[in-house]
Amino acid sequence: MSKPKVGFFSFTSCEGCQLVVLSMADKLFDLLGAVEVVNFREASSYKGEDYDVAIVEGALSTVHEIEEIRAIRQQAKILIALGACAHIGGINCIRNFDNQFEIKKSVYGDKVANFDSILAQPIDAVVKVDYYSRGCPPNRDGEEFVEIVTAILQGKKPYIPNFPVCVQCKMKGNVCTFHKERPITCLGPVTRAGCSAHCPSYGNACIGCRGLVEEPNLNAHQETLSGAGLTVEESLKFYRMLNGMMEVGK
Amino acid sequence: MKNYIVKKERLNDLIENLIKTNEVIAPVAHENFTAFAPLSSPDQIVWGAPQTVIPPKQFLYPQSEDLLAYEFSNDEVKITGLNTVKERILFGVHPCDLNAIGQMDRVWAEKNIDSNYPAKRKAMTLVGVDCLTPCSPEAICLRLGGLDPKGRFDLFLTDIGNSFSAEAATPKGEALIEGAVAAKAADKKKLSAVRKKRNLIFDKKEKKLLPKYQDLPKLMKANVDHPVWEEHGKLCYGCGSCNMVCPTCYCFDVQDYMHVSLVKGVRSRVWDGCMTEEFAKVASGENFREDRSHRLRHRTYRKLNYLFDKWGESFCTGCGRCIKACLTKIVSPLEIANEIYSRKI
Amino acid sequence: MKTLYTPELAVIKKVIPQTPLETFFELELTERKTLGHKPGQFVEVSIFGIGEAPISISSAPEPDKPTFELCVRKVGNVTNALLEKKVGDKIGIRGPFGNGFDIARFKGKDILFIAGGIGLVPLRSLILEVLNRRPEYGKINVLYGCKTPRDLLFKGELKSWECGGTVECMITVDLGDENWQGDVGVITTLIPRVEIDEKKTQAVIVGPPVMYRFVIKELKARRLADANIWMSLERKMKCGVGKCGHCQMNEIYVCQDGPVFNYAELKKIPESI
C-alpha cells in the first residue's frame, strides 16, 4: 500500500480522541511518516477532499450527521471508528433513556424547533465500520491506534483482545476494585481488554469504555454487582453510562 | 541442607547490604495487599500476611517478553533471538510460591527446554520465608502440599522469636548467609517445635480437603461429567483472573508487533489464560473448548489431575490467590474437589 | 542468539494456486540441506511482522530432496500474508513438529486413506510416501471428499496416484457443477464401495472434526478395530514445542504427542473428537 491519505472527522463528541492522537508524541511522527493527513480539524484548518482512510470520532446524533457519515463512507476505502462515542455511542446515549422532548427543551429552550437532534447512535448503526479504535479515550499511549494503522498498512487484521479487562488488570498486579479496603464496583469482568487496565491501575473502576467482550457473562456480573450492594436499577445505570446502546442492539 | 541461626537485626543488615549491590525483590505494602517489588530499604518488607496479589512468577516469566526481533533491509530479514536476563534476589517467598517455582523449573525444562525461563531462573537467588499462620483466609496450602517447601530454595528463613533459623539448600544460599553475617548452627529442636505448632494452626484455620490428597487425580478422572462443572461454569466470566494470579499457570500467547514504518518488529509472548473465550480457538473459527464449564474443568484438571499424575504432586500449591480473585467464587480447586467428593454421581 | 522460538529462513521455490482458497508452496531451507520430516508432521510458518501459524507438510520425506511442500488455506493473518508471497521470497520456518505417522505400522497392510477437504494436505505426505514404496503395501484405496469440484486439491496429480491401476482413488463432492461427472454426496457414501478386509486394513482419516464421527461410525459398521484407525487432529498449535498450552486436549499436547493418533487411544481422551 502506498502512503494512504487520511482524513479525520468529528461528530457528536468532546473531540478528545483526536487530541489523544495528537498527544502520541514520539509515535505521532512515526505515524506521519507512514500516512498523509489531509483533513484534521484539531491540527489544521485545511480541508482535503481526497482521502482513502476516514478516521471518525463521535456519535451520530443529528439528521445532518447521518447524511455526512454516509458521504464519508462513500468516499473512504477504509473507515475507522475512533473512540467510544463512534464505537458504541458512548456517553451520548445516556439521553436515549429519557424523554427526548423534555431533554431537548431543557437544552435548547424555545429554539428547540431549530435543532434536528435524534437518538444518539454509534457509527456502525448507520454505515459499515472496518476498524474500531476503542476506548474513552483510545488508550493513552496510543499503542492500539498505532497497531490498527500498522495492521492496515500490512493488510492484516489488528490484534484486539476479546477477553475481559481483568486479564490485564491482574497482570498489572492491581488490587481488584471489589477487594479494596473501600470496594468499588467495576465493569472490568465484562469489558473488552486492550487498555492495560488503565482506570483500575489509577484507583478507579472500569466503566466499560471499550465496549463489552463478545460473550459477556451478564448473569455472573449481575450477581457480583448485587453482591456489592447495587440494585438492578443502579447496575443498569452503570452500564448505560457508556454502553446503553448495547441494550437496543445494533 | 545446612542450618544456621541469624539474629533478626543482623538479617536486616544483610538485606541492606544486598540492596547496595543487587536487585532485591520482596513483598512490600500495596494498598490492603502486598506486592513483589524491588526494595530500597529492608524496612519495606512485609513479612507474612497479607498475600501478594500476583505471585513472583513475573520475575522468571514476565507478563510480556520479547522472544525475537527482526529487521528488514533490501528484501533480507535479520532475526535475533532475545532473552533479557538479570541477576536478582527474590526475598520473602512463601512456601506455596517456592513449590510453584520448583514445579515451573520442571515444566519449562521438559522435553524441549525453553530458551528463556531457565536462564532467568539461573540468575535468580531464592530466599523463602516460612509462614507461621495462613497468609490469607483463602489459603489451602497445608491441604495441597504447598506448605512444606521441600528444599526448593537457596535459603529458607523461619521466625523463631528473636532470630531466624536459616536453612541453605544450595551453595548459593550458603554463600549468601555466610558471607554477610556471622552465623551459627540452628537450634533444631526449637525449629521443629515452631513447625509443629505452625501445622496445628494451619490445620485449624484452613478449609478441610475432604478427599485424600493422593486420591485427587483419581477423583477428577472419575468425574468428567459431574454437575459441578456446569454449575460453576455458568458463573464463570472467562476473565482469566484465576490464570493470571496462579503461580503454576504458564500458558502464553504469541503476538507480532510490527513498527509502523514496517521495517522492524518484535515477536513477544504474553501470559494467556485457558479460561478465556478464545484460548483454544483456531484460525478457521473452530473453538475446541467453547464451553465455560469445560474450560473450568480443564484448568482444574491441569492442577489436580494431569500434572499431578505426571509429576506426582498437586500443581495447585494452595496459595489461595485464585479463590480470592474469582468474583463469583467458582474456581477454588479445593471446593470443587470437596463438592465432587461429597456429591457422588 | 538462537532460541527455541527462533525460526530459520526458507526460500519459496514454487507457488501454485490450487483453488480459490488454497495455494501450494515448495520451500527450501537456507541453512539446512533438508527439513528431515516424517509424514504427518507440521511446521510453524513465520511471516515476520504478522505472526506464526502451524501448517501441515504435504510432501513425502525424500532424503535427497532439498525442498518440502505446503498447501495453505487462506484463513487468518499469517496464511493471508503467506499467499501474498512470491517465488524467491523468504519466510520463517520452525520444525518439523509433532509425531507424524508411524509408517512401520502400515507395512504389508491394506491402507484405506480417507480425506475430507483440506485434510488431504497432511494425508498427501503419507500417501506419497506409501506410493514411493508401493510394493511394500497391500491394497490401497484413497477416498477424498470436498465441497465442490472447485475445491479439489492436487487435481493434476490425483490420476498419477492410481499407479497404473494398483491404487483405487474415489472422489466425491457435496455439490457438483455442470462439468462434474463424478460422485456427489458426503464422504461416507464412498465407504460401502470399498472392500475392507478387517484383518488387514489400516484406515487413515484426516478431515474436519465433524467428519470423524461419521466416518468412524461407518468403519465400525465394517468391523474395523479401533486400533486400526488412525487420524490427525487440528488444534491451535501456537508454540509447537509443548509449552504454550493452546493445543492441549486433556493431558495431551497435540503439538508433541499428536497430531496423529490411534483411535483406540483417542477414545480415552474425552476432549479429542
Automatic annotation (TrEMBL), chain A:
Keywords: Oxidoreductase. It comes from the Bacteria. It holds the Pfam family Oxidored_q6. Signal peptide: none annotated. InterPro entries: Hydrogenase_assoc-protein (IPR051349), NADH_UbQ_OxRdtase-like_20kDa (IPR006137), NiFe_Hase_small_N_sf (IPR037024). Gene3D superfamilies: NADH:ubiquinone oxidoreductase-like, 20kDa subunit. One of its GO terms (molecular function) is oxidoreductase activity. Residues 14-141 form the NADH:ubiquinone oxidoreductase-like 20kDa subunit domain. Coiled coil: none annotated. This is NADH:ubiquinone oxidoreductase-like 20kDa subunit domain-containing protein.
UniProtKB/TrEMBL annotation, chain B:
Keywords: Iron, Iron-sulfur, Metal-binding. Residues 225-257, 304-336 form the 4Fe-4S ferredoxin-type domain. PROSITE patterns: 4FE4S_FER_1, 4FE4S_FER_2. GO terms for molecular function: iron-sulfur cluster binding; metal ion binding. Transmembrane segments: none annotated. This is 4Fe-4S ferredoxin-type domain-containing protein.
Automatic annotation (TrEMBL), chain C:
Residues 5-103 form the FAD-binding FR-type domain. InterPro entries: Cbr1-like_FAD-bd_dom, Cyt_c3_hydrogenase_gsu, Dihydroorotate_DH_Fe-S-bd, FAD-bd_FR_type, Flavoprot_Pyr_Nucl_cyt_Rdtase, FNR_nucleotide-bd, OxRdtase_FAD/NAD-bd, PyrK_electron_transfer. GO terms for biological process: pyrimidine nucleotide biosynthetic process. Its cofactor is [2Fe-2S] cluster. Binds 1 [2Fe-2S] cluster per subunit. GO terms for molecular function: 2 iron, 2 sulfur cluster binding; flavin adenine dinucleotide binding; metal ion binding; oxidoreductase activity. CDD domains: sulfite_reductase_like. [2Fe-2S] cluster binds at residues 239, 244, 247, 255. It comes from the Bacteria. Keywords: 2Fe-2S, Iron, Iron-sulfur, Metal-binding. PANTHER family: ANAEROBIC SULFITE REDUCTASE SUBUNIT B, DIHYDROOROTATE DEHYDROGENASE B (NAD(+)), ELECTRON TRANSFER SUBUNIT. This is Oxidoreductase. It comes from candidate division WOR-1 bacterium RIFCSPHIGHO2_01_FULL_53_15. The lineage of its organism: Bacteria, Bacillati, Saganbacteria.
